Amino acid sequence: MLDAGGGVPILADTFWSDLPEPILERVLHGARIRMIPARGAVFALGDPEPRAGILLSGTARAFLAAADGRQLTVRYDRRGAFLARRSYLLGGD
Questions:
Q1: Are residues 44 and 66 in the same domain?
Q2: Range of the domain at 20
Q3: Per-residue pLDDT, 30
Q4: How far apart are CA 79 and CA 69, in angstroms?
Q5: Number of domains in the chain
Q6: Are residues 28 and 46 in the same domain?
Q7: Of 1, 4, 81, 84, whose CA is between 20 and 30 Å from 36?
Q8: What pTM was estimated for this model as a whole?
Q9: DSSP string, the chain
């Protein structure tokens, strides 16, 4: 399993650990670890680039936002979850 430093496997006890090591290394090739503060945005709304990630710790909340600022939570993700911008996966906004 890939090491996060200090002998700590970064995706142990998640479904990602079921993948053979060479496949997991290919999936994570070029990946980088980002620290997101509480209530911070994982993916910026105006970012035109496709983005995806794996949540290493904490909880992420996916929501739809209305023009008046209201938000509707559609999903909570925990450690090991695959995250991506909806527009990247489905096309459009």
A1: yes
A2: 1-32
A3: 82
A4: 28
A5: 2
A6: no
A7: 1
A8: 0.70
A9: --B-STT-BTTTTSGGGGS-HHHHHHHTTT-------TT--SS-TT--S--EEE--SS-EEEEEE-TTS-EEEEEEE-TT-EEE-HHHHHS--
